[in-house]
Write a structure and sequence with these properties.
Number of strands: 39
Radius of gyration: 64 Å
Structural class: mainly beta
Number of domains: 5
Largest sheet: 5 strands, antiparallel
Strand content: 35-45%
Oligomer: single chain
Number of helices: 5
C-alpha cells in the first residue's frame, strides 16, 4: 500500500513539474492573394501568424516551376514589425508567363513557408514590323529617315545603322510610340550608310523593316584659273567647279588685297552635275593699272569650297610724247619721241602730213617697245617736198590703250646741200634750182686702172659739169678693153643705183674742192679725153694734168639726180 502511495506521489510531482515548464513558440505565415497583375509585374500579399523566437526576414519567393523556395526569386522585406499582413511588389516578370509563389518567414536558421499558389502575367502580342523606310540626304552631315508604322501596340522603334548593309549593324537610337521620323545628324561628309527599323514592346521586337541607304553630301570642288581678256578697265575671272551632284551657287570674291571684300556671281551659277564645269565672271569699271586678287567660291548643301588666290592687273595705256625733228634736209627728216610701254608690247608710229590731220604714218625704228621706262624712238622720213612745213606726232598703241603725243612741226630745206647723203652717195654739186645736181661715191673703185684705148681718139672731149655721163658712154662704146676707168663706173651697181659714170674734169674739180665735206682723199681719172694718147687726171691735187691713157691710177664714180 505504501508503495502505491509513493508511486502516486511521484507521478503527481511529475505532472506538476511538466505543467510549470513554458511552451516553445513556432514561426507561422500564410500566403495571401496576388493582384494588380500586368504584363511584367504583380502585387502579392501574406499574413504573419507567429514570429517564433524572433523572425529576421520575410517576403515572397516565386518562380516558373512549382515548389519554390528562397533559392528562387524572392522579395526581402526585412525584419517583420509584428504579426499581421504584408505585401510584396513583383517586377521584371515575363509577359504571358505562369509563376508559382509562397510567402516566407525566416529567423536566419530556419525558414517557414505559407501555402504555394500561382498566377500568370498578362500576355502581349509582338508589334507588326514597320515598312517603307526611306533615307534622304539633307546635308554633308545629316540623313533623315522616315517609315510607315504598321502596328498599334508598339512602345517605340529601334533604329539600326550599318556601313555596308550586311554586317556591323548597331542600334543608334530609339524613338517613342507613333514617331515615324528620325534625323541622323553629326555624320562625316561623303559617307554612305544603311538603315533598318524595328518596332518593339514588352512582348518583344518586330521583324526588321526594309533597308534604306543614302550618303552624306560631298562638298563641291573649286579651282581658280587665270584671268583673261584683261583690259585697262575690265577683266574676266575664271574657275572650274564640280558640284558633286548638288545644286551649287558659284561666286567670285575679289578685291585689291587677299581679304577680297567684293563678290560677283558666276555667269554659270548655279552649277549642277558631277563633272567639272568652267565658270567665269566679267568685271567692268575697274581703275587702270590696278592689281586685283580673286578666287572662286562654291556653296552647296555639301559645304563650301574655295579656290586658290589668283591675281591680275588691269592694263595701263602707254605714255607718249613728241620731240623735235632732227636731221632735217630738203627731202627728209628724222622724227623723234619718247614712249613708256607700261610693261605691255607697244607698237609705235609717227603720224605726219601737211596739216594736223596728218594722213600719213611711219613705223618707229624701235617698234614694238616693251618695259616700263621711257624709251627714245625715231623714224626717218625721205622723199619729202623741199621747203615744205610738215606736222607730226608720236602714237603708241598697246592692249592697254592708245596714247598720242602733242603736234609738232618742221620745215624741209629749200635746196640740197653739199655733203648731203642722197641717192646712193654724197651730194657734191647742186644746180640753180637747188633740187638737182651730182652725187659721188667717195670710195675709189680702183687705185690702178688705165683710162684705156691709147693711140685712139674716142671723142670724149667734154670737160664741163654735166658732160661726164656722155663722155662715159662714148668711152665705153668706143673702147672694148676690160677694166678701164669708164667701164668700171658704167658697170657699177651701188645702193640700188646703176647709172654711175666717170666724172669730167670740172666735175672732178667740184669733188676735190669739197673733199673735206665728202671725205674724199683721191680722185684720179676724169672722163675728159686730151688726145689720142692722153686723158685728163686730177690725182692728189686740185689742178688737172694730162696723163698717158696707159697710166694706172684711181677711179671714183658719180651720178646725176
Amino acid at each position: 500500500m505504501k508503495n502505491v502511495i509513493a508511486f502516486l506521489i511521484i507521478l503527481l510531482c511529475l505532472v506538476v513539474f511538466k505543467s510549470c515548464t513554458p511552451i516553445e513558440k513556432e514561426m507561422l505565415v500564410n500566403t495571401g492573394s496576388v493582384s494588380s497583375i500586368t504584363i511584367n509585374s504583380a502585387e502579392a500579399s501574406g499574413q504573419i501568424l507567429d514570429l517564433g523566437k524572433g523572425a529576421t526576414q520575410h517576403g515572397h519567393c516565386y518562380g516558373k516551376t512549382p515548389n519554390v523556395t528562397v533559392s528562387n526569386l524572392k522579395t526581402q522585406l526585412g525584419v517583420p514589425p509584428g504579426r499581421g499582413g504584408f505585401t510584396s511588389q513583383l517586377t521584371g516578370l515575363e509577359q504571358g508567363t505562369k509563376y508559382y509563389i509562397k510567402a516566407y518567414l525566416s529567423d536566419g536558421t530556419q525558414t517557414v513557408y505559407g501555402e504555394e499558389t500561382s498566377f500568370s502575367t498578362i500576355a502581349v502580342s509582338i508589334p507588326v514590323a514597320p515598312s517603307s523606310l526611306i533615307a534622304t540626304t539633307v546635308s554633308n552631315s545629316q540623313i533623315n529617315l522616315g517609315w510607315t508604322d504598321n502596328s498599334s501596340n508598339e512602345d517605340g522603334f529601334k533604329i539600326e545603322r550599318s556601313p555596308d548593309g550586311t554586317s556591323n549593324w548597331a542600334e543608334i537610337t530609339t524613338v517613342g510610340t507613333n514617331i515615324v521620323v528620325y534625323q541622323n545628324t553629326g555624320l562625316p561628309v561623303s559617307t554612305h550608310y544603311y538603315y533598318r527599323v524595328i518596332a518593339f514592346n514588352v512582348g518583344g521586337n518586330s521583324s526588321y523593316s526594309n533597308t534604306a541607304n543614302s550618303s552624306t553630301y560631298s562638298p563641291p570642288t573649286a579651282g581658280t584659273s587665270a584671268a583673261t581678256i584683261i583690259t585697262n578697265t575690265s577683266a574676266t575671272m575664271n574657275g572650274a567647279i564640280n558640284a558633286n551632284g548638288i545644286s551649287t551657287m558659284v561666286t567670285f570674291e575679289y578685291g585689291t588685297t587677299d581679304l577680297y571684300g567684293l563678290s560677283v556671281a558666276a555667269a554659270q551659277s548655279p552649277v549642277m552635275g558631277s563633272t567639272t564645269t568652267s565658270v567665269s565672271a566679267l568685271l567692268n569699271g575697274l581703275p587702270v593699272g590696278t592689281l586685283y586678287h580673286f578666287r572662286v567660291k562654291a556653296v552647296s548643301e555639301g559645304g563650301t569650297s574655295l579656290g586658290n588666290d589668283f591675281t591680275f592687273t588691269t592694263l595701263q595705256q602707254p605714255a607718249a610724247s613728241t620731240n623735235d625733228a632732227t636731221s632735217v634736209t630738203n627731202l627728209g627728216a628724222t622724227l623723234n619721241g619718247m614712249v613708256t610701254a607700261a610693261n605691255l608690247s607697244t607698237a609705235v608710229t609717227f603720224e605726219y602730213g601737211f596739216t594736223a590731220s596728218y594722213g600719213l604714218s611711219v613705223t618707229a625704228i624701235q617698234s614694238p617697245v616693251t618695259g616700263n621706262i621711257a624709251n627714245s624712238v625715231s623714224a626717218v622720213l625721205s622723199g619729202l617736198a623741199a621747203g615744205t612745213t610738215y606736222h607730226f606726232r608720236i602714237k603708241a598703241v598697246s592692249s592697254g590703250g592708245t596714247a598720242v603725243g602733242a603736234d609738232s612741226q618742221f620745215t624741209t630745206l629749200t635746196a640740197f646741200t653739199i655733203g648731203q647723203s642722197y641717192g646712193g652717195g654724197l651730194v657734191f654739186y647742186v644746180d640753180g634750182t637747188g633740187q638737182h645736181g651730182l652725187i659721188v661715191n667717195p670710195t675709189p673703185l680702183s687705185s690702178n686702172a688705165p683710162w684705156g684705148c691709147s693711140g685712139t681718139w674716142l671723142g670724149a672731149g667734154g670737160t664741163a659739169i654735166g658732160t661726164g655721163a656722155a663722155n662715159t658712154v662714148t668711152i665705153v662704146n668706143g673702147c672694148s678693153t676690160a677694166g678701164i676707168a669708164a667701164r668700171l663706173c658704167s658697170d657699177l651697181v651701188l645702193n640700188g643705183y646703176s647709172d654711175w659714170f666717170l666724172p669730167s674734169t670740172d666735175e672732178l674739180g667740184a669733188i676735190w674742192n669739197n673733199k673735206d665735206k665728202l671725205g674724199v682723199t683721191h680722185v684720179g681719172w676724169s672722163s675728159s679725153e686730151a688726145s689720142t694718147d692722153y686723158a685728163w687726171d686730177a690725182a692728189w691735187k686740185k689742178s688737172h694734168v694730162p696723163l698717158l691713157k696707159t697710166t694706172l691710177t684711181y677711179v671714183i664714180a658719180a651720178r646725176a639726180f
